[in-house]
Amino acid sequence: MNTASAPEATGAESLRARETLKALYGYVRPHRWAVALGLLCALAGAAGGLLQPLATKTLVDRLSSGGTIGTILLAMTVLVLLSMVAEAFGAYVLERTAESVVLAARRSLIGRLLRLRLAEVDRMQPGDLMSRVTSDTTLLRAVSTQAVVSAATGAVTLVAAVVVMAFLDAVLLGVTLGVVAVVSVAAALVMPKIGQAAERAQAAVGEMSTGLERVFGAFRTVKASGAEERETARVEAAARRAWRHGVRSAKWEAVLGSADDLAVELAFLAVLAVGGARVASGDMPVSTLIAFLLYLFYLMEPVYKLVEAASHYQEGAAAIARIAQVDGLATEKTEKQDRQRSVRPRPTSVRFEEVSFRYGPGLPDIHQRVDFEVPGGGMTAFVGPSGAGKSTVFALVERFYEATGGRVLVDGKDVTKWPLSELRSVIGYVEQDAPVLAGTLRENLVFAAPGATDDDIREVLARTRLDALVERLPHGLDTPVGHRGTKLSGGERQRVAIARALLRRPRLLLLDEATSQLDAVNELALRDVIAETARETTVLVVAHRLSTVTDADRIVVMDAGKVRAVGTHEELRAEDELYAQLAATQLLTSAGRG
Ligand SMILES: Nc1ncnc2c1ncn2[C@@H]1O[C@H](COP(=O)(O)OP(=O)(O)OP(=O)(O)O)[C@@H](O)[C@H]1O
To answer: Which of 139, 270, 298, 329 has CB 3.0 to 4.6 Å from 319, enough for a Cys bridge?
Structure first.
């Protein structure tokens, strides 16, 4: 059997039991009064149960002495009803609280996930991160309230029952506890196995989400590659792993569940034997034996509760460990800020001072002492072979990653000194694959500038030549564009992405040109948009088209993580061998020297 790979399975081990308990307390703390109320109700219910055998003993004693039993019967009925009401109310309070714990955990996870640093997201799988929000938090439901209350009521009622049993007959209690102790040791050995299986099952659920996310992220490619069956098998394998570990957890839970039954059954037989002998010898009245046996069955309840609490705890601890891993990931510090959109903004300058950068420890240097200066305004193109580090320049300007050496300055100020949200608010960024989000065209346009007015939108639509498209669409701006904008053409998606960036009225526009060639009309339109924008904004373009560079005020030629030359098209064509080679082909990046 394949027992392999639960990539995150070490989580529970790494998070020590004390930390798990601390984290659990953190979840319960805001709801402690509700949990206390639930506990009180559960205890009231349990107390009702605890009094029953004593009432039964009194009833039997009265019957034997020929007394009346009406009042006792009435009292027992009221007791049963009251304890039922208390238990039902307590259960509701706890379930409600459990949902609130899940909500709080989800809210904090969601808030955290969207603020994660890009380097962390590069390391993790988005599908797995999603499953922590959807699936792992669900497991908190039982552990945060039910397990806490079950453990507390179980412990209290167990002690109370033991005290009453000791008062009834110490010898029989000794027999009972002896049997329970033996079975408890066996149960304690089983516990960690449940936790381990639960964590592996949750990790497999994460892998399943990762697989699905991968498929839907490239749905057409999957179909076009005829990869449906292979991808189905991949996701199914994770589903089967989740099943296998789930079943393993169920098996140990069943063992644990029967262990508590066994404890009580064995204790019952032992008490019956020893107690029967003592009644026969006249050392003990029969009513005491009956009451003791009833307590023994009553004991099932707290023992069952303790076992249930323990297995919920094992499952919950697995979830807590996985959630805590997200808490351990580095996030960005962003502050909310009101943007001033009315005034025409001043273009910013950009400067790289001897910038070195690698994407992570142990990865190669992508930038090696990159140094260039771009004054405010105008258009600067970055060219160079594929992988030279051009898009990485943009990632560092946006501070998606931080330079490992040197400084990146925007408007003369180190990007690490800018408040992050302020830095990004002056930048408009168009990614290379120009992502469009599910939703309407309008939602996509105002995504980076939620306060944009209809006039702003109209102006930008005209500039990006999207007005004709809007007129054609059945619901105009309110037409849904499909998952990732699949209902738009590639050129339209790119122009939507540019319009979105322009609506932000950026002081600096970062445009990572798509490698695909646009048709002549679109190319011309795009060229005009960039030229127009460059009049009032600093525009940096990772250029893949000759037309873009011939228009540029300056061109930065990059090669293997270094700036090789800076100049205009004419200058570079005459002076730089690589640039001359690149420019000789229409598609600038394909002439890589490899
Ligand atoms: N998130 C990342 N993690 C690790 N390595 C990365 C990451 N992003 C990019 N790289 C690596 O960094 C190098 C430079 O990438 P970059 O995207 O800056 O190149 P580029 O010059 O823009 O290339 P292209 O013209 O093909 O878009 C590449 O070799 C790439 O493999």
So the answer is: 139
59 domain-assigned: yes
**CATH code of residue 439:** 3.40.50.300
Share of the chain above pLDDT 70, in %: 92
Q: Is 389 in the pocket of ligand 1 (CB under 6 A)?
A: yes
What is the 11 CA–ligand 1 centroid distance (Å)? 31
How far are the Cα atoms of 249, 359, 371, 568, 591 from residue 584, in angstroms, in the given order?
A: 65, 32, 26, 15, 9
Q: What is the pLDDT of residues 59-75, one digit of tens each?
A: 888 888 877 778 888 88
User: What's the mean pLDDT in 251-259?
Assistant: 83
Task: Please tell me the total count of domains within the chain.
Answer: 2
In the prediction, which pLDDT does 592 show? 40
Domain that holds residue 312: 14-327
Q: Is the confidence at residue 586, as pLDDT, over 70?
A: no
Residue 185 CB-density burial (10 A; 0-12 exposed, 13-18 middle, 19+ buried): exposed
Contact by Cβ (8 Å): 510, 429:
yes
Q: State whether 84 and 212 are in the same domain.
A: yes
Q: Which ipTM value was assigned to this complex? A: 0.95
Give residue-wise pLDDT tens across range 173-182: 888 888 878 7
* Any ligand 1 atom below 6 A from CB of 561: no
Q: Report the separation in Å between the CA atom of 393 and the middle of ligand 1, taken as the mean of its atom positions.
A: 10
Q: In a mutational test of the pocket of ligand 1, which residue from 367, 383, 391 has the highest number of ligand atoms less than 8 Å from its CB?
A: 391
For the CA of 384, the nearest atom of ligand 1:
21
pLDDT tier at 84 (50, 70, 90 boundaries)?
confident
Q: Give the distance from CA 522 to its chain's centroid.
A: 40
Question: Is position 426 within any domain?
Answer: no
